[in-house]
Amino acid sequence: MAQAPASEADAACIAAFVERLWAEQGLARQTLDSYRRDLDGLARWLDARGSRLLAATRADLFDYLAQRSAQQYAPRSNARLLSALRAFYAQQLRLHAIAVDPTALLASPKLGRSLPKALSESEIEGLLAAPDTEAPTGLRDRAMLELMYATGLRVSELVGLPAAAVNLRQGVLRVSGKGGKERLVPMGEEAQHWLERYLRDARPRLAARRDVLPLFLDVHGEEVSRQRFWLLTKSSAARAGIDPAKVSPHGLRHSFATHLLNHGADLRALQMLLGHASLSTTQIYTLVAREGLKRLHAQHHPRG
Fold this sequence. Notes:
Elements: H1 8-25, H2 29-48, H3 58-70, H4 75-94, H5 121-128, H6 136-151, H7 155-159, E1 166-167, E2 172-176, E3 182-186, H8 189-206, H9 226-239, H10 249-262, H11 267-274, H12 279-282, H13 284-300
Antiparallel strand pairs: 1-2, 2-3
Helix pairs in contact: 1-2, 2-4, 6-8, 6-10, 10-13
């Protein structure tokens, strides 16, 4: 049975929390949306128990997390939920809306260190060649895939690029990343070639008006959504004979980073290109490269 919507009081409390969090920390919209969904789920669960977010106890939260674990929610999903709860109740404590933080003694679920899944270089070649570049949307798709692989952008950064972010003369993009931090990213000759073709031959046919701001447009002249790019990535994989389950927009970012490291890129430079705040986040790609070398050794060495 579907749960009733969160109460008006809880919904208003969640909305105020998200707005304050955005104003104070400038978190990405998708992070704020995830926090909103997580808190809404808890609010509806509490409502069924006759309680509210600001009245929740440590026992309530423990029971909720235990129920999610029993329903086989992934540890990473529960860890994100706990991050949302800690941020929410810490804010309520600062505002004196509650006297005790109910998340104080809740332990985070243990997370294994998962390695990013990267495509091989030959698979990337097939994926990039898959769109039908005779059609305006196909030319757009080719330019988006080429740019994603050439720059390692996050999918939100790619679809949110304004046309003014492109400097074709210098061959760079001005990218606004997490927390509004800007970085310059070189796009490479091949990606620049396809982007120039898209801007010359396809974008004018997709733009409903001349002053439209997004770089990549759908058939209605609007910004291409993350969901649309996810679908085109999957369909391109299928046309290239690659299992679509192996391919995702984020996987293209992983492939960009892994292939650069495999060809000798400097880790600090990679950190800047990816827009990582911490080098430790970038270092996981060294594990990917190491695992790839182990597989290569095992496959080809006579004593592997």
